[in-house]
Amino acid sequence: DEGTRARAEGGTLHLAARGTAPKDSAPLLLIAGDTAYRFEAEVEIDPGGVAGLLLFYDRSLYAGLGFDEKRFVTHQYGLERGRPAHPHGRRMWIRVTNDRHIVTYDTSPDGMTWRRFDRGMEVSVYHHNVRGGFLMLRPGLYSAGQGTARFRNFRFQA
Description:
5% of the residues lie in helices and 54% in strands. It is built from two helices and 14 strands. It has helices at residues 22-25, 128-131, and strands spanning 6-9, 12-16, 28-29, 36-45, 49-58, 61-67, 72-76, 79-82, 91-99, 102-108, 115-116, 121-122, 138-145, 148-157. A hairpin with a 2-residue loop joins strand 5 and strand 6 (61-67).
């Protein structure tokens, strides 16, 4: 029933929540053929929801930054690693930059004024020599918890 979770309307992707985290939320992914890229989106969540942007290899190996109504959710090595408070409420912009395996995150209240998130990571081990499966690290969006997440102004730049 994955086709029923997503719908596009008026320049907005509505993605119904599934699961509790990227590992069981069936994230929406794309293939990046470049070794350095940046992607960003404005993300809005319903009460009880958690959503964000991530780099996903498989359900056991992913990294990213998401949020709920009060806290960021940081993902490293397929686990939740921290939940620092944030001032944005249920709507914020998130940017992920993967520059040859060095990942940084930025957040913004308006898509113009960006602030570097204090945690980044190195993801060179996120590949099939470590994990198997012959997959690749793919940029993506996830929606978990309750309700629906809305993604607007998605941009990908090599």
